[in-house]
Specification:
This protein is mainly β. The protein has one domain: Beta Barrel (OB fold (Dihydrolipoamide Acetyltransferase, E2P)). It is built from no helices and five strands. It has a five-stranded mixed beta barrel. Strand 4 and strand 5 form a beta hairpin. It is globular.
Length: about 80
């Protein structure tokens, strides 16, 4: 299911060469762990957006059976 929501980035962890795993807090879904593919690549559109303490409008692919959700877009407020 594709979900659009507002989130606060609480922390970020490096994952492999180009990605990040972030912990977000959303009003609708509470605490969520998400993967931001290409989040550490300087050429990526998501590179500087997922930093601890930022507030974002995000689009994510949410499945209840997964522990880590996938983020497809994020815009700063």
């Amino acid at each position: 299911m594709i979900v659009k929501t507002r989130a606060i980035v609480l922390r970020e962890i490096r994952y492999r060469d180009q990605s990040k795993i972030c912990t977000l807090f959303t009003r609708e879904y509470g605490l969520q762990s998400v993967i931001v593919k290409g989040g550490r690549n300087p050429k990526s559109k998501l590179a500087g957006r997922f930093i601890a303490g930022t507030i974002l409008d995000i689009v994510l692919y949410r499945k209840t059976t997964r522990e880590i959700q996938l983020v497809s877009d994020g815009n700063l407020l």
